[in-house]
Amino acid sequence: MRILICEDSVLLREGIARLLTDAGHDVVAQLPDATALEAAIAAHDPELAVLDVRMPPTRTNEGILAAIGIRSRGERPRVLVLSQYVEERYAADLIASGTAGFGYLLKDRVADVRDFLAAVEQVAAGGTVLDPEVVSQLLARRRRDTRMERLTPRERQVLALMAEGSSNQTIADRLYVSAGSVEKHISAVFQKLELEPEDGNRRVLAVLAHLDAPTSTDQTSAPDATGGIR
User: Which residues, renumbered to this chain, carry the PTM 4-aspartylphosphate (predicted)?
Assistant: First the structure.
């Protein structure tokens, strides 16, 4: 299997590469950060990318954002995230994009080489591998996160249409309201979901929050011809 590793710790990076090589895999690239990740994927066409979460230059979310970008473009390469901690928000974002061909393991809890290699094979084959601690904390997060409950039915309609990829004008046409009204609803959604301008693409983050929320009639109902809820 062709595997790319993106990990800033040289010792861990070399150790993972050695394990994978000894197991018969082809490590096609080893990167210390995500700056050359896209180019390496294009050049080597790996089947699996093993990514750290926190890497230079900010050591915050470079790896996770790279993983989200990879998964948004298709099935290959599959993604196995290795993290020191459970990054609840970003783990939820990744899972919201689909769990096929995805893994999230905590470095300190990978205690057996055979288990790690099995996880590599499972993710590459399109399976899902999640550390039990990741699952536990995400379930706790879901119980804590009541932000979606703050939205009005109309704001949920707008957000549902955003999740379909609709533009502001398309949403306005679907709901029989002005584009200005849609912009006000979207601003209210951002505010109630606590998405600040510095959060990057707030539209994407809002859609992810919608996809991660428990299904409800209000959130999923489509507008009828009068702009009401069916």
Answer: 52
Domain containing 153 equals 147-220
Residues 78 and 192 in one domain: no
Q: Are 123 and 205 in a shared domain?
A: no
CA diameter of the chain: 64
Per-residue pLDDT 10s for the chain (230 aa) are 999 999 999 999 999 999 999 999 999 999 999 889 999 999 999 999 999 988 877 777 788 788 888 887 777 899 999 988 776 666 766 766 666 788 888 888 787 899 999 999 999 998 888 887 776 666 566 555 577 788 899 998 998 888 777 889 999 999 999 999 999 999 999 888 877 765 446 776 777 677 666 554 333 344 443 333 33
Regarding whether 193 and 163 lie in a shared domain, the answer is: yes
Asked if 111 and 152 sit in the same domain, the reply is no
- Partner residues linked to 164 by β-bridges: none
For 31: left if phi > 0, alpha if psi spans -120 to 50, otherwise beta; the answer is: beta
Q: Are residues 79 and 159 in the same domain?
A: no
